[in-house]
Every structure is written in structure tokens, then in C-alpha cells.
Design brief:
Number of domains of chain A: 2
Oligomer: heterodimer
Strand content of chain B: under 5%
CATH topology of the largest domain in chain A: Rossmann fold
Radius of gyration of chain A: 25 Å
CATH class of the largest domain in chain A: Alpha Beta
Number of helices of chain A: 18
Number of helices of chain B: 17
Number of strands of chain A: 24
CATH superfamily of the largest domain in chain A: P-loop containing nucleotide triphosphate hydrolases
Shape of chain B: globular
Radius of gyration of chain B: 23 Å
Distance between the termini of chain A: 51 Å
Chain lengths: 513, 379
């Protein structure tokens, strides 16, 4: 090893796309054996910087040093050979292959053209044991948990000789317990001499895991701080450029009549396998009911059934005392339901259409925008201008294609369109996924305002903070069933995590004693 | 790399494709020792050199405009209608049938009746694959291709076996339609040197405007575009993708059927046995793609195709170049339109490339495509 203080040093990295600089003279210095967090809002340039480091993008200018020696990383293979490995946010694994097959994919050890799978399995088992990763090399990826899939990804980079590991938002798909395990694994890795770059916008994880933290804002380095000496508020302020409120104060709920009543609902997923298995709950006007749970436990199917996008198998859905099971989406909308969909780019917007057209997506067929089958584009633009102003959608004008808006403003546009219709039941799924703190605060305020205005709000989120801060009641969904109902004032993240992992409330209570 | 804005780019890509197509044709002619300048000269002469040839070129463009419009409406809804030929053929047969069945009705009744019959026949032929796709999820590509054959052989069967015998002049052709049913108008024909140009040209121009209105100004057009661009979001917004797909195919079939009516009541004045699917179907797809689906683009590219086809005949007689060269030029143009992705690399999009780093708070949230790419599909 050369005698350098840093294992990775990126000096004055600039990456320009046309005239737009995604990275502008960014510096990053990673010490050997540290967990270095890279913090920034969406679009701040974190991914660009890491793509430069992993050889996917070539910097416009700037220099990368590895152990003090200047290197040129012009391909992902080069990055691999230099010992830089990336653990992707979306796992790059083939479901039908075993862990071993996935790990050796692309660099299969072979003898005369025959893959030596047993040798590879042994090597991987050894690596797994050495780093305490607890991965079964012979298991099929489809059969193992999300957490183990992630550990398989980590193994993959280690198997290829990575010395510096980049973790791209690794906790997005994990339960609180799995997150703690992951942080433990990361700490193990650095103990063994590896260095880790952790990309995230979650402050709590940085505080738990990282030694130092570099903050990037709008493509520029804001600074690097020792995590131990900085508070969450300091980091958040550095990240967004102004101070932020984490928890929005709210009045006690003033409950009104029942707006949504779900009785013994059964829904299948696409392959015909039951996804929602007998769920009962109600949402009253004036309250926010949070649905917590790990992704893939029936939340998506439940919401799709409630909004008419998916047929139910059996059960009842009463919206304002009207039976709306298996009704057409428009019928449900017109009953007084607003829906902020989970996948905003697939369901929420037609990205190629203008912002004005998207803002009219739920009302285009009615007067005043539509008269006798003809659209009044003047009225449509007026409608859009009003919403842009009221909901503070940042755009050059209402004619911009929706796909050209930033993620936060796309979400604001959907929220504007849905809330403006003054619906009595507001169904919101993952309203702040991938958004930065400023936009999250805004959306949370809007939802609480709706609740205070006497609307019934049904909130589905994988973010525990969000569920805890917003909900008046929380139900936890596990394997298509309600694992328990709790109140945010009396529950803990620990309890929620156990319920999300499938323990019953009785078991959870026992464990706490 | 030339920096242009997206509108200019939309125009430059087809223009470049056309030029490249002609260039390929020229290279092939040089290879076989023909003089490309003389050939293209006589092509222009043959298509635009006299009032007759202009009339014929316009006549040739008329059905192409209809089939191209038909293709573009279905395409907007995400439906690849390869069945334009069959739909046009249905329109042709139906219009001639009605015209022959009631030869003595007054023009103002018979002509619209025959046209509507043709449009309806096309609409039904179009509705079938639309219905099958909407309710059974069948591939429209396979269904429409096969329906072309159904239409082809059904048309022969209908003419030879089902039509009353006195409609026919021979085993292979019907009698000419009466002057009450024809689209032919003397003054127009005279104006263009007694060519076969007919009133259908004006119907085609009306259709261009009507389709533009439909797609850009009506609620139905908005639904068709929306379903085509993002069926999931459209369903979420309460649009019925089933209804929209069927409607778009009915409209598409209607327009293609009218293309066939133009051939029947306009160009040929009768129906005769077809041995292959009508070329206006496939050429219509090409015209629509070259014109990027817009009304103005379709008008211009329909004219270009007609110039190529009518002028190709002139090229053969004037310069001794085989007509097949025209097919090569046409095919090359379509090829270059098809690889517009490669061509577009030449013209970098100025809209994005020139976006300054945001300064004002309003502009700062506007994300360019590059920035999207940079964040690599996050969300």
C-alpha cells in the first residue's frame, strides 16, 4: 500500500451534461477503514459522483487517486480490478439462479470450459463465514429474504476482490431489524480493513453507522464533517441549505363518521396467489390511518382493490356507505376518493404529456375543461396555473412535459390534482418515497391539513418515521393480514418492526416483558 | 454535432432520411451505369412536369392520406394497425356494391351512401382486432395481418359468388358505377388535363383537419393519446382502455375504409379481383411514419410518395431506369426514418444541452433529461 492518508481521493471532479453540471468541482476523501457517508438530496449529484468512481461515467475534469496514486477509471471492469465494488440499490440478481451462480456470473471459474461450481461454492461459503454474512451459497435467490439478497450482493463485490465498497441507499428495502444487521455487517467489514462509502439521505443511519460524512448540494461539495461532532439538525441544514422541521405538530384528531369500511377483504396478486387475506378496518373522517409493513405484504394489492384498479376475490368495500367493491376507477373517484398512487411515474402521470394535461387527468372529461366532447385548453391551462400557484409546483410553465419536472415536483403535481378535488377519502401510498426533506415536509403538512379539514386519510408507507409522525392509528400488514393495530403515542419502532416481521401482538408483548 | 431545438429536429430527421434515401438510389443507379441526375430529372418531370402528371400525383396521394391518418390514430393509442390494406379493401368493395345496387338514386343520396358504406365496412374490419385485443389480449399484429388475407379472399368470393350476377361485367371485374356514385368531377379533371384526379382529394384534406381536431382538441383524442402513452396512468384516471382501443381502431378502420372508397369511387370506378393486399395499406403506414403521425407531415409525405410512384413511371420511360429503383429509394427512406435514433445522434437536442444551471428559484427545480439519466431511474 502506498503511504497515503486516503484510500480514495476524488479531486475537483466535474461532470457536465451539456451546460448542466451534475458535479461541479466535487472533492471526496475516504480514509481506509472508515464508513464514509455521502449525503445529499435527490438530484444533488451523489449518484453521478459514484458512477464516476465506479467507471460508469467519465468525468469532464478532475482526478481520482487510489492510495495516493492517480488512476483512470474508464469502465466498470477497471473499477472492479482496482478493488472498487458497488452494492446496488436495486439488486442485480437473477432470481432463478443460486447465490453462487449469481456471484460468479461474468467471471466463472472454469476448467476446460466446465464451470467449477463446487470450488466457487466453497470459496463463497468461506467468505460468508469470514465476514459473518450468513448467506447460503446453494440457495436460489428467489427463495431467500431481501436482507439475504443484499448480503449476496455484498458477497459478490467481496468475491471480486473489492476493497472499497459503495452502498447505494442500502436500507430502502429493509425492515428496522435488517437495517441494524446491515449496519453491524458494515462495521465488521471496516474492522477487516475494507472502506465503505454509504450513499443515503437518511440522517439516522448516518448517525448510527458512519464515521465521517460528506454533504453534496446541487452538484457541489458543502463540506465533510465528523459524524460524532454533528447533530442531525446540522446535517439536515447542510443538506438542504436551510433548517427543516422533522416532526410537524398536529392537533388531536376530531373524529367524524366512518368514510371507508373494509370487511373481510380478499385480493389476489397478478399470478392469482392470495395477497390480501381477509382484512377488516375502517377509516373515519378527520383521522389518518397508517398502514405499516414491509414492501410486498399486500399493501399494493389492497390499495389497488380500494381504488378499482384490481378486482377483489371476496369481501366488502364501503365508501361513504356505498358498496364500491369491483367498481370502475372513475366510479370510485366520483364517489369522493382521491388517490396518490405508489408508483407516481407509472400510474400518477403521463410523463410525455404536459403538466397542464396531467393536472387535468381526473377532471378533463367534465365541464369546464370539456364541453360537448371538445377540450378547452384555455380553461385547462388556467386550472393548471391555479394549482401550480396554490401548491407551489416549481416549473417554468404549465406546458412543460411532466417528465421534465423533478421527482418532488411531479409528486406535488399529483398531490395538487388529487387534493384539489375536495374528496372525502384520501388514499396515499408512499407519498414521499425518493423525495428530499423539503418536499417531504411540504407533503406531510398537506396531509395533516386535509385531516384537520375533516377528510379521512389512508396512508401506506414503508417509512416508519412517516407512519409514526402522521398517523392517528397504525395497522401493520404482514403476509396479507393485519398483524396488529397500535397507536403512535404508545408504540415503539421496535414493536412495529416485530409486527412487520410477522410476530403477533401477543408475542411482541411477551418479548417486551 | 449540430445543436437544434426539438421542433427543428422533428423536421430535420425526415428530411435527412429523404435525402439519404435518394442518395442510396443514386449510388445504386451509378453502380448499374444509369445517370441518377437524368433519372431524378425525369422523375420530377413525370410527376410534376405537366398538369396531367400533377393531377395524377394528387390522385395517388388521396387514398394514401386516408390510410396514413388511419394508421396514426391507431398508433396514438398504442395499436399497431397493419390491417389497413384489408380495411381499405372492405371499404372499396362495400362502396362499389352500394353504388351498383342503387345506380339510379340521385347523386346527393347515392354518393354519400356509398361513401358511408365503405367507411362502415372499414370500421367493422378495424373493430374486430380492436375488440379481440381489448377483451382477449390478442396481438393486434398477428390478427391484422391475417385479416388482410381474409379480406383479400373474401372480396373475391363476395364478388364472384354473392354479388348479383348483373353487377359483373366479367368473372374478374364489376361493371362501372353510374355517374350518380362517382367522385369524378369534370371541371376538376379538365383543370388537370383530363387526369383521374377526383373530388376525394378535398375529402382527404377535410379528413386531415378533422383528425387533427379529433386528436388535439377533443376529449376522445386526449383519451386516445393518454392510453397510448401510458395505459396504467390512464386506467388510474378512470379512462377505459378497452373502450379507447376499440374506438381508436374503429376510427382507424373508418379512415382506411375511406382510402379504399377513394380507389373505388374515384380512381377505378369499379372493383376488380385483387391478387395481393392493397399497397395503399402498407404505403399508408410508411407515409404516417415519415410524417411522424402529424396531419401536416402526413400531407407532405403522402405527396412525396405519390411523386415517387407517379414519377417512377416517368423515370422508366424518360431515363430507362427500372421502376424497381423507386422501390429502393422508398425503402431506403423508410429505413432511414426507422433508424432515426442513429440520425438523431447527429442533431443534439438544444433544449436540454443549452439549459443553464438554474439560477432562479423557479427554474432550479426543472430537471433536464440529463439529470434524470444521472439519477438513473431512482424513485
Amino acid at each position: 500500500m502506498a503511504n497515503s492518508e486516503y484510500v480514495i481521493e476524488m479531486r475537483k471532479i466535474t461532470k457536465a451534461f451539456g451546460d448542466f453540471k451534475a458535479n461541479d468541482q466535487v472533492d471526496l476523501q475516504v480514509r481506509p477503514g472508515e464508513i464514509h457517508a455521502l449525503l445529499g438530496e435527490n438530484g444533488a449529484g451523489k449518484s453521478t459522483l459514484m458512477n464516476v468512481l465506479s467507471g460508469l461515467l467519465e468525468p469532464t475534469s478532475g482526478q481520482i487517486y487510489l492510495n495516493g496514486k492517480p488512476v483512470k477509471i474508464d469502465s466498470p471492469n477497471k473499477a472492479n480490478s482496482l478493488g472498487i465494488g458497488m452494492v446496488h440499490q436495486h439488486f442485480m440478481l437473477i432470481d432463478a439462479f443460486t447465490v453462487t451462480e449469481n456471484i460468479i456470473l461474468g467471471s466463472e471459474p472454469n476448467r476446460g470450459g466446465v464451470i467449477n461450481i463446487h470450488q466457487a461454492e466453497k470459496d463463497i461459503q468461506k467468505l460468508s463465514d469470514h465476514y459473518n454474512l450468513d448467506v447460503d451459497p446453494t440457495a436460489k435467490v428467489a427463495d431467500i429474504s431481501v436482507g439475504m439478497q443484499q448480503r449476496a450482493e455484498i458477497l459478490k463485490t467481496l468475491y471480486r476482490g473489492a476493497n472499497v465498497l459503495i452502498f447505494d441507499e442500502p436500507t430502502a428495502v429493509l425492515t428496522p431489524q435488517e437495517i441494524e444487521e446491515l449496519i453491524e455487517i458494515m462495521k465488521n467489514l471496516v474492522k477487516e480493513g475494507k472502506s465503505i462509502i454509504l450513499i443515503t439521505h437518511k440522517l439516522s443511519e448516518i448517525r448510527q453507522a458512519a464515521d465521517r460524512c460528506t454533504v453534496i448540494r446541487r452538484g457541489k461539495t458543502i463540506g465533510t464533517v465528523e459524524v460524532a461532532g454533528a447533530s442531525s439538525e446540522d446535517l439536515a441544514t447542510m443538506m438542504v441549505g436551510h433548517s427543516v422541521t422533522f416532526k410537524i405538530p398536529k392537533q388531536p384528531a376530531k373524529l367524524g363518521p366512518t368514510t371507508l369500511q373494509v370487511k373481510d377483504l380478499h385480493v389476489n396478486e397478478n399470478r392469482g396467489i392470495p395477497a390480501v387475506k381477509g382484512v377488516d378496518f375502517t377509516v373515519k373522517s378527520g383521522e389518518i390511518l397508517g398502514i405499516a409493513g414491509i414492501d410486498g405484504n399486500g399493501q399494493t394489492e389492497l390499495i389497488e382493490a380500494l381504488t378499482g384498479l384490481r378486482k377483489i376475490v371476496s369481501g366488502e368495500i364501503l365508501i361513504k356507505n356505498h358498496e364500491r367493491a369491483n367498481a370502475a376507477p372513475r366510479k370510485i373517484t366520483e364517489t369522493g376518493v382521491a388517490h396518490v398512487p405508489e408508483d407516481r411515474q407509472k400510474y400518477g402521470l403521463v410523463l410525455q404529456l404536459s403538466l397542464a394535461e396531467n393536472l387535468a387527468l381526473q377532471t378533463y372529461y367534465r365541464a369546464p375543461i370539456s364541453e360537448h366532447g371538445f377540450l378547452d385548453y384555455g380553461k385547462m391551462r388556467e386550472h393548471a396555473k391555479r394549482l401550480i400557484k396554490e401548491y407551489d409546483i416549481r416549473t417554468t410553465n404549465e406546458q412543460l412535459r411532466a417528465g421534465e419536472l423533478s421527482g418532488g415536483n411531479q409528486q406535488k403535481a399529483i398531490i395538487a390534482r388529487e387534493l384539489d378535488r375536495d374528496a372525502d377519502l384520501i388514499i396515499v401510498a408512499q407519498p414521499t418515497r425518493g423525495l428530499d426533506v423539503g418536499a417531504i415536509e411540504y407533503i406531510h403538512r398537506q396531509l395533516i391539513a386535509q385531516r384537520d379539514a375533516g377528510k379521512a386519510v389512508l396512508l401506506v408507507s414503508f417509512e416508519l418515521d412517516e407512519i409514526m409522525n402522521l398517523s392517528d392509528r397504525i395497522i401493520v400488514l404482514h403476509d396479507g393480514k393485519i398483524a396488529g393495530e397500535v397507536r403512535p403515542e404508545t408504540t415503539t419502532e421496535q414493536e412495529l418492526g416485530l409486527l412487520m416481521a410477522g410476530q403477533t401482538q401477543a408475542e411482541t408483548a411477551k418479548e417486551e416483558i | 454535432m449540430i445543436k437544434v431545438n426539438s421542433t427543428t429536429r422533428k423536421i430535420l430527421i425526415p428530411l435527412f432520411s429523404i435525402l439519404a434515401g435518394f442518395l442510396v438510389g443514386a449510388i445504386i443507379m451509378l453502380f448499374y451505369s444509369y445517370d441518377p441526375l437524368q433519372a431524378y430529372g425525369s422523375m420530377i418531370q413525370g410527376s410534376l412536369g405537366s398538369t396531367v402528371s400533377i393531377g395524377e400525383t394528387l390522385r395517388q396521394a388521396t387514398p394514401l392520406i386516408f390510410t396514413a391518418l388511419g394508421f396514426s390514430v391507431a398508433n396514438s393509442a398504442g395499436f399497431f394497425n397493419i390491417g389497413l390494406s384489408g380495411q381499405a379493401l372492405a371499404g372499396w368493395v362495400a362502396s362499389i356494391w352500394v353504388a351498383l345496387a342503387f345506380p339510379d338514386l340521385p347523386t346527393f343520396v347515392l354518393l354519400p351512401l356509398a361513401i358511408i358504406a365503405g367507411a362502415l365496412a372499414g370500421a367493422i374490419m378495424g373493430a374486430i382486432p380492436g375488440f379481440l385485443r381489448a377483451f382477449f389480449g390478442t396481438s393486434e399484429v398477428i390478427v391484422t395481418i391475417m385479416l388482410n388475407y381474409v379480406a383479400l379472399y373474401l372480396s373475391t368470393y363476395l364478388m364472384q359468388e354473392v354479388m348479383p350476377a348483373h353487377f359483373r361485367s366479367s368473372q374478374d371485374a364489376t361493371k362501372m358505377i353510374s355517374h350518380h356514385a362517382t367522385l369524378h368531377v369534370d371541371w376538376l379533371s379538365h383543370m388537370f388535363g383530363d387526369s383521374r384526379i377526383h373530388f376525394g382529394l378535398f375529402l382527404a384534406l377535410i379528413a386531415l383537419v378533422a383528425v387533427w381536431l379529433l386528436m388535439k382538441k377533443t376529449t376522445l383524442g386526449f383519451e386516445i393519446r393518454s392510453v397510448g402513452l401510458n395505459p396504467f396512468a390512464s386506467e388510474y384516471a378512470g379512462m377505459s382502455s378497452k373502450k379507447t382501443i376499440i374506438m381508436s381502431m374503429v376510427i382507424s378502420g373508418t379512415l382506411a375504409g375511406l382510402g379504399g372508397v377513394m380507389e373505388g369511387l374515384g380512381t377505378y370506378q369499379n372493383f376488380f379481383i385483387q391478387t395481393a393486399s392493397m399497397s395503399i395499406g402498407f404505403d399508408g403506414m410508411a407515409v404516417s411514419l415519415l410524417g411522424s403521425g402529424s396531419s401536416l407531415g402526413i400531407l407532405l409525405s403522402a405527396l412525396l410518395f405519390s411523386i415517387l410512384q407517379i414519377g417512377g413511371l416517368g423515370m422508366q420511360t424518360g431515363a430507362g431506369v427500372p421502376f424497381e429503383i423507386v422501390s429502393i429509394v422508398t425503402a431506403s427512406i423508410i429505413f432511414f426514418v426507422g433508424i432515426d435514433y442513429v440520425i438523431s445522434k447527429l442533431f443534439k437536442n438544444k433544449d436540454n444541452a443549452n439549459k443553464k444551471l438554474p439560477k432562479t428559484p423557479i427554474a432550479k427545480e426543472v430537471v433536464t433529461e440529463e439529470k434524470d439519466a444521472q439519477e438513473g431511474g431512482r424513485l
